[in-house]
Amino acid sequence: METVRLDGKALAAKKRESIREGVEKFTAKSGFAPGLAVIIVGDNPASHSYVRGKEKACEKAGILSEKQHLSADVSEKELLDMIGHYNEAPHIHGILVQLPLPDHISESKVIEQISADKDVDGFHPISVGRMVTGQKTLLPCTPAGIMEILKAYDITLSGKNAVVLGRSNIVGKPMAQLLLNEHATVTVCHSRTPNMKDLAKSADIVISAIGKPGLVDDTYIKEGAVVIDVGISRLEDGTLTGDVDEAAVQGQAGHLTPVPGGVGPMTITMLLANTLQAAEEQTA
Ligand SMILES: NC(=O)C1=CN([C@@H]2O[C@H](COP(=O)(O)OP(=O)(O)OC[C@H]3O[C@@H](n4cnc5c(N)ncnc54)[C@H](OP(=O)(O)O)[C@@H]3O)[C@@H](O)[C@H]2O)C=CC1
Ligand SMILES: Nc1nc(=O)c2c([nH]1)NC[C@@H]1CN(c3ccc(C(=O)N[C@@H](CCC(=O)O)C(=O)O)cc3)C=[N+]21
Ligand SMILES: [Mg+2]
């Protein structure tokens, strides 16, 4: 069968244009732009590259972004104080602390320090609780972006078997929750799952968020299944690659997101959408 390519990049471009228009209206009405503070600790080149992507996207959308680069040996208290400052800053409506953080800083303390109203990553326990109970909230960008891709391609979730590979707080767990909220039957696999391949093979929808290049080949995929590749790894030659062996699943999967050009661009798009939503809610 012909595998349909799920073009996250094209969908992202379309959505960013409508977000740009929303930002323009917001700015005309309120007299100031939506504002995002991005805090990055240390010198990890991948993290800096993602943050540059976020800043560029904000600029194009008309969102003010304010970057703070802290050195890797910054104290936890200094970081918490900086977040406290942005919690009170009226021109900032969203706060993002790029993960991962150095080992001497508690990620959960940092996330809890962010005011839930400004939690544009959707990682705060208050945001997570709202998501789990089906209340309106800022949703985690990667899972929310995947839901937008599935919706744009009219992929039915209700009654389907979805298997999520990976259980991190930022991708796997919230992904499973959003699929459950849309009435899929959800299985979550991780490093202690002995029969991951069999579970994946039985799924209508497989979402891989592990970070192991090429792990998911055609032996994991049922004929016609929807395959979403969240994984991003940089190979030695500098190319980006996903968890899915694209050549192997070609012709087997019904739909597939490429890497790059699939989930990643939608993650940034949802960050823009969340920042606009946060600004609207804070000025309502
Ligand atoms: N496209 C995008 O926008 C984004 C992409 N990513 C990418 O997605 C991937 C996952 O990110 P993230 O969730 O933060 O990663 P984590 O490292 O936090 O989580 C990885 C998960 O995969 C599980 N795992 C690891 N190895 C195996 C294995 N061999 N078999 C089964 N399960 C395994 C781990 O299990 P256990 O819990 O038992 O340790 C864990 O639950 C990475 O490649 C990351 O770069 C991340 C965020 C956004
Ligand atoms: N607080 C926090 N929030 C995050 O959302 C967050 C984070 N920390 N830490 C790291 C991960 C990773 N992540 C990506 C975002 C965009 C692309 C992306 O745009 N990828 C492009 C390729 C970009 C390139 O060429 O480098 C693509 O897949 O096509 C990828 C990964 C957000 N994360
Ligand atoms: Mg084949």
TrEMBL record:
* Keyword ATP-binding appears in the UniProt entry: no
Under SUPFAM superfamilies, the record lists: Aminoacid dehydrogenase-like, N-terminal domain, NAD(P)-binding Rossmann-fold domains
Pathway of this protein? One-carbon metabolism; tetrahydrofolate interconversion
Q: Which UniProt keywords apply?
A: Amino-acid biosynthesis, Histidine biosynthesis, Hydrolase, Methionine biosynthesis, Multifunctional enzyme, NADP, One-carbon metabolism, Oxidoreductase, Purine biosynthesis
Q: What is its EC number?
A: 1.5.1.5, 3.5.4.9
Q: Which GO terms describe its biological process?
A: L-histidine biosynthetic process; methionine biosynthetic process; purine nucleotide biosynthetic process; tetrahydrofolate interconversion
Question: Taking every annotated instance into account, which residue ranges of this chain make up the domain Tetrahydrofolate dehydrogenase/cyclohydrolase NAD(P)-binding?
Answer: 140-282
Reactions performed catalytically: (6R)-5,10-methenyltetrahydrofolate + H2O = (6R)-10-formyltetrahydrofolate + H(+); (6R)-5,10-methylene-5,6,7,8-tetrahydrofolate + NADP(+) = (6R)-5,10-methenyltetrahydrofolate + NADPH
Specify which residues bind NADP(+) according to the UniProt entry for this protein. Answer: G166, R167, S168, I232
For this protein, the record's InterPro entries field holds: Aminoacid_DH-like_N_sf, NAD(P)-bd_dom_sf, THF_DH/CycHdrlase, THF_DH/CycHdrlase_cat_dom, THF_DH/CycHdrlase_CS, THF_DH/CycHdrlase_NAD-bd_dom
Domain Tetrahydrofolate dehydrogenase/cyclohydrolase catalytic as annotated: residue spans: 6-121
PROSITE patterns to which the protein is assigned, alphabetical:
THF_DHG_CYH_2
Among Gene3D superfamilies, the record links this protein to: Leucine Dehydrogenase, chain A, domain 1, NAD(P)-binding Rossmann-like Domain
Whom does it interact with, and what assembly results?
A: Homodimer.
Query: What is this protein's function per UniProt?
Result: Catalyzes the oxidation of 5,10-methylenetetrahydrofolate to 5,10-methenyltetrahydrofolate and then the hydrolysis of 5,10-methenyltetrahydrofolate to 10-formyltetrahydrofolate.
Q: Which NCBIfam families match?
A: PRK10792.1 (NF008058), PRK14186.1 (NF010783)
Family assignment?
Belongs to the tetrahydrofolate dehydrogenase/cyclohydrolase family.
Matching entries from HAMAP family are given as: THF_DHG_CYH
What is this protein's name?
Bifunctional protein FolD
The gene behind this protein is: folD
